[in-house]
Amino acid sequence: MDQYAQEIARLLDPQCRVEPLPQCVSVSMRIVDGDGRALDLVRCDDRRLRVRAQLPEDASVSAPSIRVSALTPKHVADHIRRRLLPQHAEALEKVEAEKTAREAEQRVRGAVAERLASLIPGACVKPEYPRPRRTTVSFQRREDPEDLWFTGRIWATVGPQGDSVELEIHALSEEAEHALRGLASLDGWCTREGDSAG
Questions:
Q1: Which of 13, 98, 153, 157 could form a disulfide with 170 if both were Cys (CB 3.0 to 4.6 A apart)?
Q2: If you average pLDDT over residues 156-162, what whole number do you get?
Q3: Quick count: other Cβ atoms within 10 Å of Cβ 170?
């Protein structure tokens, strides 16, 4: 299988290299091109191969694959080049577009969260949760530093695209609550727990 995959890799591109699959299956090999794009070859039986394109683990796009008769290396390489490589390129474009969109959304969420945190003295922005994509701002206050119980709590969750904020307010003074709700409503943010606005 190793020599077979080596010949297929050479026919696809002289810069391709062959690696064993992480699972160390003797009937499987991985072909990696000069740009790091990978194809996994798995022998299904004596007559057929399954060739699967690799995508990043967090991609929501399905990885394309083909089945091809395990004839000569040239036969397999021709099928990969004609049938699989165009699908792989298209899938990678979608993955890159998703990544760009996620990064743009993350910047918007971060800006909204930082702005909101700046309105609440002592508030901090929490690390992002990737799934679902949320950014949270929290504030907790004690009347007495030696008191174990928080007398005031605020959580603000910025939505995936930064266009909504869910605001939860607990145990604040009536004046502080009204002031914070007023600030939030000026920007169209949520003013009651569980509600959201664009």
A1: 153
A2: 70
A3: 13
